[in-house]
Amino acid sequence: MSFQTILITGATSGIGFEAAKHYLKLGWRVIFTGRNEDKIASAKAKLLDATSTPDQLFGILCDNAIPQHYSTLVTEISEKVGMLDAVILNAGVFYPKLFSDTVYSELEQTMLVNFTGPVMLLQTLLPVLNNPCSVVYVSSIVVERAFVTASSYSASKAAFEAYANVLNLELAPQGIRVNYLRPGVTATEIQGKAGMSQSQVAELNASLANLPLGRMLTPKEMLSSFELLTSSNSLALRGAHITVDGGYCL
Questions:
Q1: pTM for the full predicted model
Q2: CATH number at residue 216
């Protein structure tokens, strides 16, 4: 059976997990990554229900913060599926801190996982990217609007977009295009990982009541944008962004 093949990083939960499930249902072969073998196994068990055959899904350990993982990932992709038709660079971290409280290690980790890691992973992936190939970076509305305690996160997302704008020029002969999805406030595990309690998440959701959408977004509300950006309908898009924010930036 012939599949289109997509790599989705950081897909053991949240936006990445929903994207993996969506592409499986569309009939794509999905390779997804995570930083924890147990979470990869758990996600794979849940995702298998959306497959038509076991060789439609592969979960591979890859941490953006560990460069040694990149070459291993590419070797496994080459051996298991050959080439990629699309990549969603979704893995990321968020450590909310006031500038006055920011510590070097958290700033360094944020830049490594959200900027340097995706850049160098993409470089390592070049030999297994088809012509054409769509690359979608999961950015954020923080590149459009300032948020208190999000300075490091904002810088990391904006840095990748600026870097990849140049890649669109350099990689055009290889048929590689890079575009950006900018989600607004989305209910995922990132809030808990950032140290927010359930009551704080509920307060955050309530604070959005006056926006046009009136609530936090869900990961599933990103899927139609992914589908457009990875389809042949986006061949003319280079360095474009789709903002899915429920009206936050109006």
A1: 0.95
A2: 3.40.50.720
